[in-house]
Every structure is written in C-alpha cells, then in structure tokens.
Design a protein that fits this description.
Blueprint (H helix, E strand, L loop, with lengths): L39 H22 L1 E8 L4 E4 L4 E3 L2 E4 L2 E8 L6 E7 L5 E6 L5 E8 L4 E4 L2 E5 L2 E6 L2 E8 L6 E7 L5 E7 L4 E6 L1 E2 L4 E4 L2 E5 L2 E6 L3 E6 L6 E5 L6 E3 L3 E2 L5 E8 L4 E4 L2 E5 L2 E5 L4 E7 L6 E6 L5 E7 L4 E9 L4 E4 L2 E5 L2 E6 L3 E6 L3 E2 L1 E5 L7 E6 L1 E2 H8 L3 E3 L5 E5 L3 E5 L15 E5 L3 E4 L5 H4 L10 E2 L2 E2 L12 H15 L5 E4 L2 E5 L11 H9 L68 E7 L12 E2 L10 E4 L8 H4 L4 E4 L6 E2 L2
Parallel strand pairs: 1-7, 8-14, 15-22, 16-23, 24-30, 31-38, 43-50, 49-53
Antiparallel strand pairs: 1-4, 2-5, 3-4, 5-6, 8-11, 9-10, 9-12, 12-13, 15-19, 17-18, 17-20, 20-21, 24-27, 25-26, 25-28, 28-29, 31-34, 32-33, 32-35, 35-37, 36-39, 40-41, 41-44, 42-43, 45-46, 47-48, 49-51, 51-52
Length: 688
C-alpha cells in the first residue's frame, strides 16, 4: 500500500514564493514489545493437576492399615504422611512412630511397620493407670492388711494400686475382724471404702464380798466392784484384788452383745508371805513337807499356823526353822548354810598346770583341797596344752585323788587317730607313731653296698598310716579300668590279687589323689592335665610313703636294730621267706637264688608271705615299690644333725624305688638298704 506524498499549502501572505517539495523522513520512535499476560486460572488448573497426580500416586502405592484400640475411644496419632478415616489408615511402606492416648490409660508409644504385604490390622491394648483407695474404719485405727501385706492403720490412703481384685482385712483390738474383697478400677481414680468392725465382747456384771475390789481384765484396771465390764467372747483373765485378801482370778468369756452376771465372789483373807534366801543360793525349800522351789524365793504360807520350813543343798548341812505369820504379814528368812567338807587331792602332768574349781582359779596342781561334799567341776589348764576337766563329788572321811595328764594339740590329735583305717579303694592301713631316730643307708663294710646308700641320721616324729599290703590289680582298676599289668612270657601279672605293676610314679600318685577325692580329703599331689606338678606337704590326703618312712617300716626292728634282709642277716634266705627270684623263675630270668624255692615264678597274690614285725607284708619281696621322694645321692657327715621327717629333695628327674622284687636274686638287690630309681613303669615295680 503506497503512502501519498506530503504537500504544503502556499502562504497567501507571501505570493510569489515558490514552494518546493522535499523528501520526507518520518521520525522512528522506540519499538513496543509484546507482553505475556498472567492467567490465574491456568495456574490453578496446573496445581490441581499436580496434586491430583500426587494423590493418585499415593493411593496406588499406599497400603490400607486398620488399627483397633482398646478402649475404642483412644486417640491414635501416626507421624508422617498418612490419610485416615475412622480406624482405617493409608500409609506407604516404612516404619512410623505411633502413639495412642485415652483418659485414665497409660499412653501407648511404639513403632508401626508397613510392608508390601496384603493389607494388615494392628491391635493396641492400653493399660489402665493405677488406682487409689481410701480406707476408713469405725473404730478408727484399725490395722489394714491389703493383699496379704499389712499396710498401716485407718484412715489409710493406698496409692498406685494396679487394677484388679484384692482381699482386704481390717483388725482392731477387742473387735471382730472385717474381711472383704476390693475391686480396684484403676484409671487414676480414687475409690473410698468404709468398714465398720463389730465389737467382740459381751458385758460381765461383777460383785464381791467385801466390795470395793479392783477389777482387772487381762491386767488392765476396769473399775471396782460392783461394776459391769466388757469381756471378750474369746475369753480374758479377770482378777479381783483387795488389800488384805487373796486375789481372785478366773478366765471368763461373754457372748458378743450379751450380758452375764457372775455369782458373788467371796474374797478370802490373804496368805502371809515368807521371803527365803540362803548363802550360797539354790537351796531346796519344803514347807510342811511339800517342796516349794529353790532359794531365793517368796512363798505364801497359811496365816495363824506354825509352819515347818526345811532347806537342803548338796554339800551342806540341812536347816529347819519354825515360823508363824499373821494374815497379810510379810517376813524374810536369810540363812548361811554350813558346808559338809571333804578333802580332794589334785595332781597333774605337767605339774605346773593351773587348777580351776567350778570355774574359779585355785592355784597350781598338787594341792589337797577341802571342798563341800557335792559335785564339782575340776579343771586343769596350761598354755600350749588341751585343757581337761572332770566332774567329781568328794566324800567326807575319804581322801580322793584326781589325776590329769595334759596333752598338746598334736598329741591330742594323735591320740584320737584310729589304729587302723580302710581306704575307699579297700586297702587296710595301720597307724604308726615312730617317735624314733635311726640311721638310713648301709655301712661301707656291708657286703653288696652301693655308692648311693650313704648313711644319714633321721628322726621320724610325725605319725602316718601305711598300707598293710601292696595295691592290687583289682583295687587299681577301680581307678583305671583299662589298666593291665600284662604278663611275662605268657605268665600273667594281671590277676585281681596280684600287685598292680607296669604303673608309672605319676600313675601311683594320681591313684593317691583319687583315693583322697573319694573320701573328701584335700589332695596331697598337685595335678595339671593328668600330670603331677607338685605337692602340698601339710595336706592330710593320701600319698606315697617317703623313703625314710618306707625304710623305717621295713628295716627298724622293735629293739631299734636295723635288719639287713627281711628275714634277718643271713644269706641265702630260708625257704618261703619272701617272693624273690627262685628256682621256679629260672625259665624267665637269667639269674636266680640257687636252691631257693618260694613257689611263685612272678608276682604272688599280696600277703602270701609272712608279715614283718610291724604287721606289713611284702616289703622284702614280691614287687619293688615307688616312694614319694625324688632320687638323689645323699652324703651326710657322721656328726650331722638328724633330719626330722625328711620329704626328700624338692625336685628331680627320677623317683626312689625301694625293696626287692620277684626279679631280684643278688645280695645287693635283696638287702633292705638297696636304693633304685626310675620314672617309667616296670613289670616288677608297684606301690603301697
């Protein structure tokens, strides 16, 4: 579309001017931009669509959960994104904190876990809060026992009681108990219980002659006669008392709520009272020949009549008195009893022991005492000794002597020991009290002596029990059922009565511990993982004999001399003296005692051969025996001080073996001084 040209109109005031056309360039102003207009409707529609999509997404991914509460009125709150209507809740999978509240109930707080499984139901039961109970009684002050426990006196406020039904008992003096059951509602409510206790008495009308007597019911003053008093239906002691008269007593009862009239009570004149005492006290009393008790004593006597009172006490002369007292009179009779004396001489060992007569010190022993002729407790005491006492009754005209021999605690223990005991394994053991010194080993001049038999002085003071026979296979297998003593070239060593062999020193020591366990004694040997690692010298449990105990038992004769062999000092032994390497063992052994016969090729049943002078068997044959000691070669000078109860070295590799066996034939081995050693088992070594 063309724009028309711009023309100017001539100015009539200026004729002749030529109006010329010029090019026209229109002025270009700023370009106006197009603006976007805000549309609220579109925003609202968009937001609605977004929310709808979120809701639709939630409905598709949520799970429907039903929550039931008890009580139904409980308010349930679930933290997080949740939609609910009544008790239905829409929740996505996950764990939520849940709380339920209801008045009077303890709030429930817990976790609610929602899974991808099918819709679920949850049940919540709220616990009632404790309740409270106020108990009042008539009369007040009744003791309340609630649910079996005494809780105090009414009025009583019992707080924080769990809901439930409880027994309640109210008791008050002189009232019948009130029993009921109480149902506590809980829910922090306070309930009230009022109990009325019924009187447990009736009414007793009392009169007396003369009147004016005090009335006491179970010791409580209730008035003076004539009067009506309350008396329990269960019965109470009623006393009427009036000066110058004997008290009247009776146990009476009156039915609850009833009245009863007691017949007239006639009060009798009071007895006279005689107070009797003696020095010393404890004398028996008779009045008119009737025994009344012992001094000091107050007794009632019939007034106006002469009474014969007699007193008697062991060791004292009897006393008789005549008394006459008026009604209601009180009188005292105090007498010194004259003793009936007798002499008693008391001697003691040691003679400086102190004497006690009836617990009272009387000086040193060796006295002649003058004592009342009655039973006395005589005791002798001395520091370091066990006290002794006797019950003695000295007799007049007869001098008696009481002797004490006090023993130390160790001597007392030894005296109490049984001469023989039987172990749990069946072995018989004898008790020995050596109290003897002797020289072990052998002189260098003795034929067959070895270098390890150096002589030394020892003193045995401690008593000990020693097995009469060697431990048998039958006895050892009670401890180790799988043990076998085996055989020698087909000749058995394993019959029940043969000594147990092929046992190590460790086996023998563990057997001793087993015996201690069976008898409940402290273990002598310290054991770890089946190995003996030490010992407890003070233990009273079973153990192996020490080497010196064994040698004393085998060698020392009753006269103190030392035996060379078990049968004496000569060689060869007489037939059947002991089980050693004899002719019957020639096929088994390379060396035997020529011409000697004992009838046993290997070990014999224990106790087959004669016992020695101490009643012990087979110390001179059958099998050699383990002792407690570690092995060493002891060299002691002739003037050395005697060792007391030596236990042997504290450590070592080997243990001492003592005594000959069925394998031995040489003079060296058959001597009782012969010392061998080892640690492993042998078929000719056992133990006792």
């Amino acid at each position: 579309m063309a724009r028309p040209p711009h023309t100017s109109t001539p100015d009539p005031a200026r004729p002749g001017d030529v109006i010329e056309a010029v090019d026209f360039k229109p002025l270009r102003g700023p370009r106006t931009q197009r603006k976007t207009m805000f549309n609220p409707r579109l925003v609202l529609l968009g937001s609605f669509a977004l929310v709808s999509m979120i809701i639709f997404w939630f409905l598709l991914t949520a799970r429907s959960i039903v929550i039931h509460t008890d009580p139904e009125t409980a308010l349930v709150r679930v933290d997080g994104l949740v939609f609910h209507l009544a008790n239905h809740y829409l929740l996505r999978t996950g764990t939520y904190r849940l709380r339920a509240d209801a008045p009077g109930y303890v709030p429930f707080v817990g976790a609610l876990t929602v899974t991808d499984d099918a819709d679920a139901q949850f049940n919540i039961t709220l616990q009632k809060k404790p309740g409270h109970l106020v108990v009042t009684t008539a009369p007040t002050g009744a003791v309340i026992t609630f649910d079996g426990t005494e809780r105090g006196s009414a009025p009583l406020h019992l707080r924080d009681l769990n809901p439930g039904t409880y027994p309640l008992v109210a008791t008050a003096p002189r009232h019948s108990a009130a029993q009921t059951t109480v149902t506590v509602d809980g829910m922090d409510r306070t309930q009230h219980l009022i109990l009325t206790l019924q009187p447990a008495w009736g009414y007793l009308q009392l009169t007396s002659s003369p009147s004016g007597a005090q009335i006491r019911v179970d010791g409580e003053l209730r008035g003076v006669t004539p009067a009506t008093v309350e008396v329990l239906a269960s019965g109470e002691e009623v006393t009427l008392s009036l000066t110058g008269h004997k008290p009247w007593r009776a146990r009476l009862s009156v039915p609850v709520g009833k009245s009863h009239e007691q017949p007239l009570v006639t009060l009798l004149p009071a007895d006279a009272v005689l107070s009797i005492s003696t020095r010393p006290p404890g004398a028996g009393i008779t009045v008119a020949g009737k025994y009344r008790g012992r001094t000091p004593l107050d007794i009632d006597v019939t007034p106006g009549q002469e009474q014969s009172v007699q007193l008697f006490l062991d060791g004292y002369h009897p006393v008789q008195r005549k008394v006459t007292l008026a009604s209601g009179q009180q009188s005292a009779l105090a007498l010194d009893l004259k003793p009936r004396l007798a002499t008693l001489r008391v001697v003691a060992d040691p003679d400086d022991a102190q004497l006690y007569i009836d617990g009272v010190p009387r000086g040193r022993a060796g006295q002649t005492l003058e004592l009342p002729a009655r039973a006395h407790r005589i005791e002798a005491r001395k520091a370091g000794y066990i006290s002794q006492q006797r019950q003695v009754t000295p007799q007049p005209g007869l001098e008696q002597v009481v002797r004490f021999k006090l023993l130390t605690a160790a001597e007392t223990r030894r005296a109490a020991l049984a001469d023989q005991i039987t172990s749990p394994g069946g072995q018989r053991l004898k008790l020995f009290h050596p109290q003897q010194s002797f020289t072990t080993g052998a002189s260098r001049r003795e034929q067959g002596r070895r270098a390890n038999e150096a002589q030394r002085k020892v003193l045995l003071q401690r008593p000990f029990y020693l097995g009469v026979r060697e431990v048998t296979n039958g006895e050892f297998k009670k401890f180790a059922a799988a043990h076998s003593s085996s055989h020698v070239q087909g000749t058995t060593l394993d019959t029940p009565k043969q000594p147990a062999v092929n046992v190590t020193w460790n086996d023998a020591a563990r057997y001793c511990n087993w015996l201690s366990q069976q008898q409940g004694l402290p273990l002598f040997y310290q054991e770890k993982n089946g190995n003996i690692v030490g010992f407890t010298p003070t233990s009273t449990g079973y153990r192996l004999p020490t080497e010196t105990e064994w040698e004393w038992a085998a060698r020392v004769a009753s006269d103190g001399t030392l035996r060379k062999f078990g049968w004496g000092d000569g060689f060869p032994p007489p037939p059947g003296a002991a089980n050693i390497a004899d002719q019957s063992a020639a096929k088994l052994l390379g060396q035997i005692v020529a011409g000697y016969k004992d009838g046993a090729a290997t070990s014999a049943p224990v106790g087959t051969f004669a016992a020695n002078g101490k009643g012990l068997y087979d110390l001179d044959g059958n099998v050699a025996e383990w002792t407690h000691d570690f092995y060493s070669i002891a060299i002691v000078g002739a003037s050395a001080k005697a060792e007391v109860d030596p236990p042997g070295p504290a450590s070592g590799e080997f243990h001492v073996i003592r005594g000959p066996s069925w394998r031995h034939s040489s003079i060296t081995e058959l001597r009782l001084a012969f010392r061998d050693y080892g640690v492993d088992s042998r078929d000719d070594v056992g133990f006792r």
